[in-house]
Amino acid sequence: MRVPLYAGVRPLPVRRPEFNAGLWYDKFFCYWKDNEWSVEEGKENREKSGKIKWIEVAAISPVGDQAMLNQAIHRTATLVLALGGEIRCLTTDWRFVTGLGREHPVENGFAWHHTLGVPFLPGSSVKGIVRAWAETWIDPPVSDDVRRIFGPDGEVRDKHVGSVIFFDALPVKPVRLEADVMTPHYALYYQQDRPENPPGDWYDPVPIPFLTVAPSQVFLFALAPRRLDDEQGRADCQRAMEWLTEALAAVGAGAKTAVGYGRFVRQEKEESEIRRGLTAYDVTFTPAADKLSGVPSGKHVPPAAMSPLRAEMEEDGYNRDPDRFMSALTTKWLKKLQDDQTIPDEKREIAVLLKEWYLMYRGEQWRRPNKKNKAKIAEIKKVLGE
């Protein structure tokens, strides 16, 4: 049987690091039986089924490109903080799975970010989690606040948007995946339109594999007030973020939360690193923001946590002008790495920042140095002990 692929495209049973993992996982499944549209089954000699093979191959190595994730996280954090919003990093306390209801040959789907090729939680799902928590678990009830923050429910005639914007939750680093299995014992009973056969112990259990996000994977959650000059909206944003943190720790997100999947706990260390990565040039204030902050129009506010070395690199074009910074890297920063007068702590900080810059703006050169960059990258790795 011919696999349904574009002309000239071969089946790809192994995912390469440069692939968009989501595109590969959804479109290139290749464990079909010969001459029929069904998936290979396991053999009596314990050979694995096509479903398990595909999921295990998907989970062999982390998914996502660090440079692309850095840019996405940087843009999201910059936008949200410029709007007066809140960012928070939370890590998976155990496994997390989203998108099981999507169609896929392995029977259970998976939600992939279209461009980044990583698992994510859509902003609409984040909003639904927080609203359900506020409506169900908050005591005393806060129905007026819920309508203001999230908008009215579907039965109210007075339609309006909520005061808070909910962004997609994105992973901070490439994501480790794991294969898992659910084993329904009463498949025939569940498949009946009318329950004529009872759920008896004589049914055979049917193992169904599915793909999950592994524990200890960090995601960035972000909320922002809809109107920048609205003090109530800013307060609502802070309150919604607290509700979100509580909901993810107590109830969880995604599928199978009733059996412990989808719990998240706060990761303040990652939050601090993201904030330190923002620069004096990252947050451009609108007139409304200038008025709220007391900053003269058109100026920028550097984060208090930015180190002097990072601020100096920003002056050299670290995030604004990669070509300009490449020149400074060659003529200035590499010399500081090689200078015996530079203290070890400063050398390491410089090396870390230079590596991050390469991964963000010259990722291919870092992974496969050419003659021009080989010595530079070797010097950075030498200081980092890589």
TrEMBL record:
Listed GO biological process terms: defense response to virus
Keywords for this protein: Antiviral defense
This protein's record includes keyword Metal-binding: no
InterPro entries named among the record's database cross-references: CRISPR-assoc_prot_TM1791, RAMP_III_fam
Keyword NADP: no
Superkingdom, natural source: Bacteria
Domain CRISPR type III-associated protein: 97-264
One Pfam family recorded for the sequence: RAMPs
Protein name: CRISPR-associated protein Cmr6
